[in-house]
Amino acid sequence: MVYINENFNKLTPSYLFATVAEKRAAYEAANPQAKVISLGIGDVTQPLCPAVIQAMQKAVQEMGQPETFQGYGPYQGYDFLIEAILANDYAPRGVQLGKDEIFVSDGSKSDSGNIGDLFSPTAVVAVSDPVYPVYIDANLLAGRTVRRLPCSEADGFCPAPPHWHADIICLCSPNNPTGAVFSKQQLAAWVAYAQQEKAVILYDAAYKAFITNPALPQSIYEIPGAETCAIEFCSFSKTAGFTGTRCAWAVVPKALQAQQADGASVSLNELWYRRQSTKFNGAPYIVQRGAVAIYTPEGQKQVQETIAYYLQNAKIIREALLSLGFECTGGENSPYIWLKTPSGQTSWQFFDLLLNELNIVGTPGSGFGEQGEGYFRLTAFASRQATEEAAQRFRAYFGR
Ligand SMILES: *Cc1c(COP(=O)(O)O)cnc(C)c1O
Predict the structure, then answer these.
(1) How many domains are contained in the chain?
(2) pTM of the predicted structure, to 2 decimals
(3) Which domain holds residue 96?
(4) Most exposed: 9, 217, 288, 391, by fewest CB within 10 Å?
(5) How far away, in angstroms, is 113 Cα from ligand 1 center?
(6) Ligand 1 centre from 392 Cα, in Å?
(7) What are 59-88's pLDDT values in tens digits?
(8) Are residues 164 and 16 in the same domain?
(9) Is 210 helix (H, G, I), strand (E, B) or coil?
(10) Among 45, 175, 182, 237, which residue has the most ligand 1 atoms within 8 Å of its CB, making it the best to mutate?
(11) Residue 340 — φ and ψ, nearest 5°?
């Protein structure tokens, strides 16, 4: 029999969301009258906006006519989408990138996993703790050593560069799960570290559309020098409700070099093009047509309205928590609220309390890493009505 990739045995099984679902189902079975509110899921709930729907319907019609039919598209994505990304996401922030530095894909999760194909299995990877688990598991599968950067209230859950060497650094801002957002100064320290250590930063900006504070960076390339040491991942998933539709992009600058065993330097842009053209045949035409529609004036307005809706939900939860004396990060410039559990409860004790006493489901922070113990994640993706009801339940219970 064939031997498997033994690195699968290094993955720790994740029972987090399965246990959450089991506990909720057991409670609901025992208490059929209870109205349980979920502030647990990390998925958007508002439907695709009309501009996107219309653009995709038109694209479907085009696919049905011989004159407008599209077969395999360009590996890096259609020019119409890449040009819109450059003009809207980067140029207004003073970031100049070339069309061949953008790679459209079917998702940031696949990109952040697949990018590992470019690097040696001996590269040392640094990830924050708490963390989005994909970064750890994808690197363990490739046989790489993963080291944690412990985050805490003291650093506002924005870790500073360590005193040890890393080759690859995974950063996520606005952060899932903590809602923390790096300032330009904090990111500049990471860029300086990466240049010093000749490391590569993998920057996950999936939630950048939630940044409303103009002083906060939406792209790592707003930091001078980042084009020599950073790859950026962006996605239409949280920006425009594409979690089920699937469209994202990666930026791999041409100025970004790594080395091969003989010391010669190699362009990561060229390697990523080779990797994508070998294993990927592009994101669907219909989906890319839908994605580009968010950059039209109507599309912008519709997408902004949905983001504002989630941000208002976040504000409602955050303000209720703060008024009750909870400590929390996020909930501003982010759809996630990360709270410290009261009176030293573990994350799971607090989960049980919220479920049993308030009929609210959230996500235990310990599921995102050791440093998440004693913390809890709430999300802004529920309906306004459910969010207000949840805030009311918090006030009624913890305001006593
Ligand atoms: C949701 C999310 C993404 C987006 O992933 P897609 O595959 O593009 O849907 C990326 N990173 C983080 C941390 C996320 O939470």
Answers:
(1) 2
(2) 0.97
(3) 50-295
(4) 9
(5) 11
(6) 30
(7) 999 999 999 999 999 999 999 999 999 999
(8) no
(9) helix
(10) 237
(11) -85, 130
